[in-house]
Automatic annotation (TrEMBL):
GO molecular function: ATP binding; ATP hydrolysis activity
Protein name: ABC transporter ATP-binding protein
Pfam families reported for this sequence: ABC_tran
Organism of this sequence: Psychroflexus maritimus
Domain ABC transporter as annotated: residue spans: 2-242
UniProtKB keywords: ATP-binding, Nucleotide-binding, Transport
Tree of life domain: Bacteria
Lineage start: Bacteria, Pseudomonadati, Bacteroidota, Flavobacteriia, Flavobacteriales
Transmembrane parts of this sequence: none
Keyword match ATP-binding: yes
CDD domains membership: ABC_Iron-Siderophores_B12_Hemin
InterPro entries listed in its UniProt record: AAA+_ATPase, ABC_transporter-like_ATP-bd, Metal_Ion_Import_ABC, P-loop_NTPase
Length: 259
């Protein structure tokens, strides 16, 4: 469903080019949940923005169902990818219901009016994310965690084959982090949608994701959690003085210092 070919991502201005990741060759199938994992500043958001057409890559290609995303106009792209980015501008004056309704924009007429079937999809998304009690509240009255769930419901209402989220569990407590990732997994399994998200929740990603894209020093390696554990990729992620990867429990633990 999504492929990248020799993708190089980064930042370019008139004076210099800063390469963040190079030789990124990803191959992502339908119905899979994929986490992008890497230390702060490693390039997770840059990669997410580049594979969704928000940021122009330095070189290489991003293909969605064999079509280069450059060739898709905004409306077509919005029917293929729903995107929840950090620092995305949203109008917090809208009610929860209104904000989630915006997910239907690729399918509505020029007046943006939702028909009965759109309303059904919006209400289902509200129910799936467990937001019934908040649907009439204004978004500026929500906690950060509640707003995070509203943005997830908007992405679900957009009903695209690919859902891409940047750190979807940032403001959530431990229980709600697991709840959101479980929900995303259910969306993949039940509807064959693909979910790609950047996250620092390594332990949850190892338990729930089909694949992980591990970013380490300008390289992005894709594999199943078990394959990445087996080939030792997680051992290289952080300096070993404070935490270390324990392959038995498949999680990071505080390093066992001997002195
Ligand atoms: N607009 C920009 N212009 C130039 N450099 C940028 C820009 N945005 C990010 N960078 C740089 O690109 C690198 C990767 O940043 P990015 O935000 O993609 O990392 P990240 O893995 O998502 O980080 P975090 O986990 O802290 O959110 C960093 O060195 C950052 O300073």
């Amino acid at each position: 469903m999504l492929k990248t070919s020799n993708l190089v991502v980064g930042y370019k201005n008139t004076k210099a080019t800063q390469i963040i990741l190079s030789d990124v060759n990803l191959s992502i199938e339908s119905g899979k949940m994929i986490a992008i994992i890497g230390v702060n500043g490693s390039g997770k958001s840059t990669l997410l923005r580049s594979i969704t057409g928000v940021q122009t890559p330095i070189s290489g290609e991003v293909l969605i169902n064999e079509t280069n995303i450059n060739q898709l106009n905004d409306k077509v792209l919005a029917s293929k990818i729903s995107l929840v980015l950090t620092n995305q501008h949203i109008s917090k004056n809208l009610s929860v219901f209104e904000l989630i309704s915006l997910g239907r924009h690729p399918y509505t007429n020029w007046l943006g009016i939702n028909n009965a079937s759109d309303k059904k999809i919006i209400l289902k998304a509200i129910e799936e994310v467990d937001l019934q009690s908040l649907k009439h509240k204004k978004c500026n009255e929500l906690s950060d965690g509640q707003l995070q769930k509203v943005l997830l419901a908007r992405a679900i209402a957009q009903n695209t084959p690919l859902i891409v989220l940047d750190e979807p569990t940032t403001h959530l407590d431990m229980y709600h982090k697991a709840q959101v990732l479980h929900l995303l997994k259910e969306v993949c399994v039940k509807t064959n949608k693909t979910v790609i998200f950047a996250s620092h929740e390594i332990n949850l990603a190892i338990q729930l994701c089909d694949q992980i894209i591990l970013i380490n020093q300008t390289k992005a390696v894709q594999g199943s959690p078990s394959a990445l554990i087996k080939n030792g990729s997680f051992n290289e992620l952080f300096p070993k003085d404070l935490i270390e990867f324990d392959p038995l429990s498949k999680s990071f633990r505080v390093a066992n210092k001997r002195n």
